[in-house]
Every structure is written in C-alpha cells, then in structure tokens.
Amino acid sequence: MAAMDLFGRRWALRILWELRSGPLGARALLARCEGLSSSVLYQRLRELTANGIIAASADGYELTPLGAALRDALQPLDAWATTWAETQERNDRISAEA
C-alpha cells in the first residue's frame, strides 16, 4: 500500500516517466512537466530518492535499479494507453464525420 501512496502523489509517475530514458536535471524535468511547480518537484524528488526509486547523480536524477524495474512494469500500461488514445482519436474522427 505504501507504494500506491507514493506513486499516487501528484506528478510522481510523470517524473518517473520522464526519467525512463536517462538522467535529467531539475530544470529539464520542470521543462518537460508543464504545470509542475519547483516546490512540488523537489518534494517528489526527495520522496522518490528516500524510497530508493531514483538517485541524484552528476547528470541530475536517474532511476535506480529498483526504479528501472518499475519502468519495465509500467510498459504494459503505456501500451494500453497508446491503444486507448488511438481509439479515442478514431472515435472523435467518426463523430466529426457524422
């Protein structure tokens, strides 16, 4: 349950998603997450670091091996979301044509 509490916090999953391809600094994360305040970003970074999901490095923040395993676990959700978005777009086109 603690993991769901952590990942359910606003912006936590988005931050992890942005780190999926490699390390990023705080400024880069803010630029990629429109609407994210710096205070919330730093709070989430502290929480994710304290829980061993990410680590600070010379290049910014990066996923730990535990965080990388989470990335792998989220891949099926990403595939589902892509299919869902395509279905929504198709339905919107059909509605617009009708």
UniProtKB/TrEMBL annotation:
<dbReference type="InterPro" id="IPR036388">
    <property type="entry name" value="WH-like_DNA-bd_sf"/>
</dbReference>
<feature type="domain" description="HTH hxlR-type">
    <location>
        <begin position="1"/>
        <end position="89"/>
    </location>
</feature>
<dbReference type="InterPro" id="IPR036390">
    <property type="entry name" value="WH_DNA-bd_sf"/>
</dbReference>
<dbReference type="InterPro" id="IPR002577">
    <property type="entry name" value="HTH_HxlR"/>
</dbReference>
<keyword id="KW-0804">Transcription</keyword>
<keyword id="KW-0238">DNA-binding</keyword>
<protein>
    <recommendedName>
        <fullName>HTH hxlR-type domain-containing protein</fullName>
    </recommendedName>
</protein>
<keyword id="KW-0805">Transcription regulation</keyword>
<dbReference type="Pfam" id="PF01638">
    <property type="entry name" value="HxlR"/>
</dbReference>
